[in-house]
């Protein structure tokens, strides 16, 4: 399927705007298929095995449970078409579209002589009540032969006009298909949200009380809900959306005029096969290629000269260049490949669930029994009086100052930038919530909820769910409370010598390097004392999962 270049920006390979699903040929060049689809359209690949067709197929998920199978195919010009494979492609679901180069000619859609594959396709369409969509104009114009034919068309099942577009320089014209599916798909314009932080602070100042009434754990949960809602409302009211129009690269008018003139001469040549028209078209095509290369080089030079390491523009640009967009492939699980987002999510869910199980390896029953008894006794005993050190607005402000504004948000959607812009009444409100949590030994459930993102592990099969590492995104406000708890737990453990000196993990100023130096020093002391030094090393599988 081809799309008009004046309405879409083609960016290859897969980007944040478009998803590419190519079917790469590994044997020789030419041929091959691919589908370019907007990421805003819900879809997933549906591979179809075929020996006579090269194909790429996807399923587009439409509202109200509708699905459309879209297949891009290429049929080499030699050999006979196998209609059973076409039947398998078109019978995936009730609505199907197959488009591409069939290399089949028939008077029903092509001028000139027909061929045997054209008769096969025609009979197949007639006997299965299908619809062929072909442009009225030819799509194939051989460079070395003054003839034209229609080799590129579409076959529809239960779906529907085709137009040959004279907008590329290939010997095959792209074909635009217009499909009426009787479903309203609203276009989602690309927008950038800008926030007026002065307005945000004013709204927070007028909407959040400085000293809320909190007595019970239920009051804590209600206060957090209202506090979060107030910040989200202020963010929305202080935000302004700006729609981005047009492509990111705008060619100069003189190059655009040359492209229009080139397309005109190209059309004249396809209509008349008059050799001088082809010469004019080829000459303009070469000039346009050189002009665009020169324009891109000059634009690149101006961009590089504008970068400045002092304002971080150089580092930001380097981050954009090195950032790779990862397209999640189908996930292989016990009952087959998962293509849909829901199927992939369930595969990851079961994989993580299997990882979080009791270790089946041998263990000491007496030790396990003793641990269970100690834990049960602890929970059955009345809670000891808790007198933790309460926090203050100054301590919270000191933590907020160190927050990284580039960190992702959690389920509440509150960024660190918004937390940094909180007014003093909001800080005192937050102080009251934190102190009540400390006094009542309560950690709010809403701060335990996380968005889990799966990131591929390097050098592992991306189709296996176990090849991904989960990253949990928690509430940024909850993280501030965690920092308060950590400071108090660390102080208590240090004062009571609870953490052994040999533990280096999760301790301040005790990194992996220090532990390596300690081990090295122990080994050297053994060597100097003429002693045999042994070591036991433990590798915990999936410790970060």
Automatic annotation (TrEMBL):
Residue ranges of domain Reverse transcriptase in the record: 436-545
GO molecular function, one term: RNA-directed DNA polymerase activity
Keywords attached to this entry: Nucleotidyltransferase, RNA-directed DNA polymerase, Transferase
Superkingdom of the organism of origin: Eukaryota
Protein's recorded name: Putative RNA-directed DNA polymerase like protein
